[in-house]
């Protein structure tokens, strides 16, 4: 393991820290202060392919759990995150291979989605060599889905928990399903009936929303293959039940995207939802887009607002700062982190305020480069 402190930047008032994971095997610490984004540290060599960053806060401290999408000898990595956003005290453990997304749930449990492995697994924390797999759900398909090139087998792509903490959801891009699990007090999962999407949609990631003016809970899922976003109503019982309410394109008639585009990340903030589009180049060569929607505060119905620049190529992830005023966008192939303003009242994204190349530029045909970015 190698630690490198790139600068001795002391965060001033208003400074914020980020982490960015690169497919080359490095996780970078970044600092944003006013209009400047700076690399302040890097951890290299612990993992072959860090793919996703999951954060937790306990007893006044923060931890970063980083999944590994590599094949043989995959490693899970856990770090303490200090007040300057540096990664310390690594704990490494053997991991299932090909983990593309992860979540924490219950009283100290970890769930991972294995895209190529067609499975979902769980472990008890801490993630060291003494943490065996607790649950493993392996899926198969009798025949390919409508998109035969991408749906030849199940491809779980994300794991996330509902607002009550009682259920874990897993969008399966290959099977056109949203898999649902009830979380038991032991940390074990009980599988519930899955919700089926429209054929060929390829659900990828999801985010929940709760109304502040009614009892309504909604789920919003980005469909990678359909280049769309679906609003699902949520009903609670022994199992969580979903019903499709509305599906909108992640593009507009004026900017319809092009062949080969792929919707990627989704986040909900207050009464707004955002989706990143990869490969559309709606704002020029290697300049992809973010689609913004408003959410009706009572019903959860979506309304398209605008398409804005992602200020990078193949934006695999983005993250909204907890105070809502900024969005960090990670261009995977361009390997850059762009910081844009966000109006908390209107939900609209504003001007680019900082941009930094982080790690080596990727190859669009290999899907490498910057895999994840989060505010810490």
UniProtKB/TrEMBL annotation:
Family annotation (Pfam families): Lactonase
One annotated GO molecular function: 6-phosphogluconolactonase activity
Classification via Gene3D superfamilies: YVTN repeat-like/Quinoprotein amine dehydrogenase
Transmembrane portions of the chain: none
Coiled coil: none
Family recorded in the similarity comment: Belongs to the cycloisomerase 2 family.
Protein name: Putative 6-phosphogluconolactonase
Organism from which the protein derives: Ceratocystis fimbriata CBS 114723
């Amino acid at each position: 393991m190698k630690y490198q402190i790139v600068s001795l930047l002391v965060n001033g008032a208003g400074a914020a820290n980020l982490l960015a994971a690169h497919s080359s095997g490095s996780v970078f610490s970044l600092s944003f202060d006013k209009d400047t984004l700076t690399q302040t540290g890097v951890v290299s060599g612990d993992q072959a392919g860090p793919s996703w960053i999951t954060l937790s806060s306990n007893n006044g401290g923060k931890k970063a759990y980083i999944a590994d999408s590599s094949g043989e000898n995959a490693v899970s990595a856990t770090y303490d995150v200090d007040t300057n956003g540096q990664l310390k005290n690594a704990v490494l453990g053997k991991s299932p291979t090909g983990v593309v997304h992860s979540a924490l749930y219950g009283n100290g449990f970890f769930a991972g989605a294995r895209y190529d492995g067609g499975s979902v697994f769980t472990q008890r924390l801490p993630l060291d060599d003494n943490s065996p797999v607790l649950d493993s759900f392996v899926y198969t398909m009798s025949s390919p889905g409508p998109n035969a090139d991408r749906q030849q087998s199940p491809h779980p792509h994300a794991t996330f928990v509902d607002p009550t903490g009682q259920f874990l959801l897993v969008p399966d891009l290959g099977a056109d399903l949203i898999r649902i699990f009830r979380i038991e007090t032991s940390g074990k999962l009980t599988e519930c009936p899955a919700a089926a999407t429209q054929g060929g949609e390829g659900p990828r990631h999801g985010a929940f929303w709760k109304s502040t003016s009614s009892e309504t809970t909604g789920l919003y899922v980005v469909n990678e293959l359909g280049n769309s976003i679906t609003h699902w109503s949520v009903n609670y019982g022994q199992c969580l039940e979903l019903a499709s309410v509305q599906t909108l394109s992640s593009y507009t008639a004026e900017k319809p995207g092009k062949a080969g585009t792929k919707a990627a990340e989704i986040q909900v903030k207050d009464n707004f939802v955002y989706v990143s589009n990869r490969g559309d180049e709606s704002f020029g060569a290697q300049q992809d887009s973010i689609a913004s929607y408003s959410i009706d505060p009572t019903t959860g119905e979506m309304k398209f607002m605008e398409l804005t620049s992602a200020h990078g190529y193949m934006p695999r992830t983005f993250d909204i700062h907890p105070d809502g005023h900024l969005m960090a966008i990670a261009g995977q192939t361009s390997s850059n982190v762009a910081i844009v303003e966000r109006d908390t009242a209107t939900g609209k994204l504003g001007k680019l305020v900082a941009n930094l190349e982080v790690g080596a530029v990727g190859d669009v045909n290999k899907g490498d480069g910057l895999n994840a970015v989060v505010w810490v």
